[in-house]
Amino acid sequence: MAVDDKVVIGQTHGTDDPESVLIGYLMGVEALRKGKQVVMWLTKDGVYLAVPGYAATVEVPDAPSVETLHKEFIESGGRFFACPVCIKTHHLEGTELVDGAEVKGAPWVYEFTEGGALTFTY
How far apart are CA 18 and CA 83, in angstroms? Predict the structure, then answer.
């Protein structure tokens, strides 16, 4: 597998910075359309994106729908690794997560990126 066949989108935002969320999804969805393996590494407020229904609350006027991009990301095989420390500090332990989302820490990100990966952070 080539180094650029794997993509990590580091997402640290939620409704606090909707444009960062939008750009992260645009990059992730485009990578999936190109046949890449994509993990969105959710930290800080980004962990809320793993909660069902949350993506619908993130809106950027006159831009593509974050909710629609979120659905395409999931349906196209995009995965979410939600930081376990951030899940705990945001009081989300035991919360149901969207399809493709798992509570996985840094060791899993390193395992996914073994051999190389493109990375983007928002």
Answer: 20
What distances in angstroms separate CA 119 from CA 39, 46, 63, 77, one per listed residue? 10, 16, 23, 18
Quick one: pLDDT band at residue 2, thresholds 50, 70, 90? low
Q: For strand 79-82 and strand 6-11, is the pairing parallel, antiparallel, or unpaired?
A: unpaired
pLDDT at 5 over 70: yes
Q: Rounded CA gap, 102 and 116, in Å? A: 21
